[in-house]
Amino acid sequence: MAVPKRKTSPSRRNMRRSHHALGANSFIEDKDSGELRRPHHVDLKTGLYNGKQILTPNED
């Protein structure tokens, strides 16, 4: 069974974890409403996805 010969230093451990950070969410401007929305998600304001009515729009 493989056993490490030395303890991993905090610096080396943190360098390995540097790729684990989450990136910021991306948003695009909707063509029809001009609202910001996530790509490949339903526009909650209009209820449209890919030009098709998926949800009934909320009346606020």
TrEMBL record:
Q: Which UniProt keywords apply?
A: Ribonucleoprotein, Ribosomal protein
A Pfam match: Ribosomal_L32p
InterPro entries on file: Ribosomal_bL32, Ribosomal_bL32_bact, Ribosomal_zn-bd
Q: Where is this region: Disordered?
A: 1-36
Name the residue ranges with Basic residues bias. Answer: 1-20
Which Gene Ontology BP terms does the record give?
translation
Give the superkingdom in one word. Answer: Bacteria
Q: Which GO terms describe its molecular function?
A: structural constituent of ribosome
The keyword Iron-sulfur is assigned to this record: no
Give yes or no: UniProt keyword Ribonucleoprotein.
yes
One GO cellular-component annotation of the UniProt record comes to:
large ribosomal subunit
What PANTHER family does the record tag this protein with?
50S RIBOSOMAL PROTEIN L32, LARGE RIBOSOMAL SUBUNIT PROTEIN BL32
* Family the entry assigns: Belongs to the bacterial ribosomal protein bL32 family.
Question: Can you say what this protein is called?
Answer: Large ribosomal subunit protein bL32
